[in-house]
């Protein structure tokens, strides 16, 4: 019996070692597809944007095949843990709360967070009592509003920012909180965008908004996290990252 148990233990150890030394031939990236300029969905269902280009460049750098998987934000972490894909690249902030469930690479972007409202809305950020403020559900923006304004404002949560923008245009909410580039691309740079403006403070506090955007990976796939980290560094050293970023941003999206 003892001999059998020893053999079983050695087999289990060997199996674990094989799993840890996985040879990555294909990497599947979960991407939201509803957060321009990071990602959006074309009429034919294909995904485009900075995150998509980054995913493909990372795969080329790692010499693996790349597969893009569309995933709504609400289920993006559960689907990673359920192995629907191997990594998330979706403008996801690196936060301590998320790190309890998943691992992150180092940052690949860092963008300030802002409120947007119709021009002349006259919002007083010293007292937003009773105002309806829109956010995307289960985001760092949602957490920030809940912690700082939860007792005074009416937080309206949406599955995507497109829904929030529609209600802002219809006057159902007074403002939307999101990252500056997404608000710029989703509202200010669109037809009719001249009717809106950034209002209130620029928010970067790492307590809520983390250390920047990172690529999320399951905790057991530390070898993949390492490969992705090395690939991000390599893309920046070669200037490929900068070329991709220049297609979508007119400022340094990586930050300091």
TrEMBL record:
Residues 26-252 form the Solute-binding protein family 3/N-terminal domain. PANTHER family: ARGININE-BINDING EXTRACELLULAR PROTEIN ARTP, MEMBRANE-BOUND LYTIC MUREIN TRANSGLYCOSYLASE F. It comes from Vibrio fortis. GO terms for cellular component: membrane; outer membrane-bounded periplasmic space. Residues 26-251 form the Ionotropic glutamate receptor C-terminal domain. It is found in: Periplasm. It comes from the Bacteria. Residues 1-21 form the signal peptide. This is ABC transporter substrate-binding protein. GO terms for molecular function: ligand-gated monoatomic ion channel activity. Pfam families: SBP_bac_3. The keyword Transport applies. Keywords: Periplasm, Signal, Transport.
